[in-house]
Write a structure and sequence with these properties.
321 residues; alpha/beta; Rossmann fold; 7 helices
């Protein structure tokens, strides 16, 4: 009898506890709901962020805003357009170096700040992709026809003029390292189409006497005095072709552009993030401006101050237009 009474009392106590617990849970839920309806940020429902959108890479790599990957003659090039484009737009052909030295369009864009240049100067900037080995057919030889990469460059110019409101009378080129050699080839072979060449850390490759442009062409060369990757004295490439010295390259263009041997050297100015100074030397009496800028202690690809670099680029390009 006593055991039965104790079991009954235990059951009643449990029922009371469950009732109290259920009431507390209900009131708590009601309180949270009320707080949520009050608009307090403390009660916002926390959810996991959505997964990032995956961008499929194009043949030119992953593209950013104002970039396109275009195809012509079974080759590709990346086009950077100005954010607020007006027409017609000057055209700049930009050539990257051999891997791993800024050997993709994206790396050259980062190195030279090409998006900012396109936006500030209304440039259409085309970055061709090299052949299967990502290099350029930039060798200049006596009596040779334009290389496949020169032919590609001309086709790109035509496409930009016909389909993207490019200005056929305002075409320039900039190249870095092996890409600089490609810019030199365009200056030698098609100066009637590419009217200004800016070469960074790379000299003319091939025969200097074979560089015989039909008209003078604007030239500006930029190089570091401590560049060990592309020595100022030049070298023989793995292909057996000659990479000429900087002095030999500049002398050839001094002759081409009818310059005297007199020069004017600018005051020193800061050109890199390490506060390295540079001076620009300008040949005098030239039909077209012929200049070179040397960075004291500069290596192959220093971190250039983009506004200063862009001023050098645009000054050269504009003088050709």
């Amino acid at each position: 009898m006593l055991c039965r009474m104790l079991r009954l009392q235990f059951q009643q106590e449990n029922q009371m506890k469950n009732t109290i617990l259920a009431t507390f849970v209900g009131l708590s839920a009601l309180g949270l709901t009320a707080c949520g309806s009050s608009g307090s940020s403390d009660s916002a429902v926390v959810t996991n962020p959505p997964p990032p959108v995956q961008v499929a890479p194009s043949a030119c790599g992953v593209l950013k805003a104002n970039e396109q990957c275009l195809q012509i003659n079974n080759r590709h090039f990346m086009l950077i357009s100005p954010a607020a484009k007006t027409t017609p737009s000057p055209i700049v052909l930009a050539f990257y170096g051999s891997p791993p030295s800024y050997g993709t369009p994206q790396e050259l864009d980062s190195f030279l700040g090409l998006h900012a240049l396109a936006d500030s100067k209304n440039y259409l900037i085309a970055l061709p992709l090299g052949g299967q080995d990502w290099t350029w057919e930039s060798n200049v030889q006596e009596g040779s026809n334009p290389s496949a990469d020169t032919a590609l460059s001309l086709a790109i110019i035509d496409k930009l003029v016909n389909e993207h409101q490019g200005d056929n009378n305002k075409v320039a080129t900039v190249g870095f390292s092996a890409g600089a050699m490609m810019s030199y080839q365009l200056a030698c072979q098609v100066p009637h189409r590419v009217k200004a060449a800016f070469a960074v850390s790379g000299q003319l490759r091939g025969s200097l006497p074979a560089c015989k442009p039909s008209v003078p062409v604007v030239l500006h060369h930029l190089h570091g005095t401590a560049d060990t990757d592309m020595a100022l004295e030049g070298r023989v490439a793995l292909s057996g072709n000659v990479i000429n010295s900087l002095s030999g390259t500049l002398e050839r263009f001094r002759q081409i552009n009818g310059c005297s041997t007199n020069t004017i050297v600018s005051d020193a100015f800061k050109l890199t993030a390490k506060d390295q100074t540079a001076k620009t030397t300008s040949f005098q009496g030239c039909i077209k401006p012929t200049q070179f800028t040397m960075v004291e202690g500069g290596q192959h690809h220093p971190e250039y101050l983009k506004p200063v670099l862009h001023q050098l680029l645009t000054t050269s390009f504009t003088s050709g237009f």
